[in-house]
Specification:
By secondary structure, this protein is mainly alpha-helical. Helix content is 50%, strand content 6%.
């Protein structure tokens, strides 16, 4: 659409003039450098980010997910460049540990955050994370992110996960989840042997804890999302 950025800014300004919200965040059409967005929405207009940044009131934040929709890491120079384009520090929308959609729902992303060095903090207006479908299990990696900022170069993502698991799950369930991390996080439902899945289900079904029930439901396929579900045909 011609004048896409300017039209979007006008809409957000209209909303801003009528809401009592204390903070407004806009999600632009092209919220990442990822070419997947160009495939989904059409080729982005030249200078789109610069146009959004120029047209939008600087008091309004702008979401950004990084070099990819689901970025593996964030660099200081990348965020500085985006900040210059947007004329404000980006509001980071971090797509981890999200596991929605057909490609990601067969996995439980439980490992501690990596690739988010403390040095990116001054380049951001905020850092939000996109949670997993399992709210209790989301807390395991979520609690490691502030530790990454707090400890800086001394941050150890394995130790941070061990600490959050101990705090949230207690010793028995914490030990079980950490021992099965590769199966849950990397192998996933589609590649997991049926006998292994049944053994895991038996172990977690015996534990009275919300996180254990989330794992059992995941093993039973209750969290799996399909393309039909994404398209509203469920």
């Amino acid at each position: 659409l011609p004048g896409l950025a300017e039209a979007q800014a006008d809409i957000v300004h209209w909303i801003a003039g009528r809401t009592r919200a204390s903070r407004i965040v806009m999600c632009p059409t092209y919220y990442s450098d990822d070419p997947a967005l160009d495939m989904a929405f059409g080729v982005r207009p030249q200078g789109y980010l610069e146009a959004v940044g120029k047209a939008l009131d600087t008091r309004i934040d702008i979401f950004w997910t990084g070099e990819e929709v689901c970025s593996r890491a964030y660099g200081v120079r990348h965020l500085e460049r985006v900040g210059e384009q947007l004329r404000r520090r980006p509001f980071l929308w971090d797509n981890y540990p999200v596991n929605d959609g057909p490609r990601m729902s067969p996995f439980l992303y439980l490992r501690g955050f990596t690739g988010r060095p403390a040095g990116i903090g001054p380049r951001l207006s905020a850092h939000a994370i996109n949670p997993a479908l399992q709210p209790e299990l989301t807390l395991l990696p979520a609690l490691t992110l502030p530790e990454s900022y707090r400890l800086g170069e001394d941050y150890d993502y394995g130790a941070a996960l061990a600490a959050s698991a101990q705090e949230l799950l207690g010793p028995e369930l914490s030990d079980l989840v950490r021992r099965h991390l590769i199966l849950l996080n990397d192998t996933g439902l589609d590649r997991m042997d049926t006998a292994v899945r049944d053994r895991l289900r038996g172990r977690y079904a015996a534990i009275d804890h919300t996180a254990a029930r989330e794992i059992v439901d995941w093993l039973d396929g209750k969290w799996v999302m399909t393309l039909d579900m994404m398209n509203g045909d469920h």
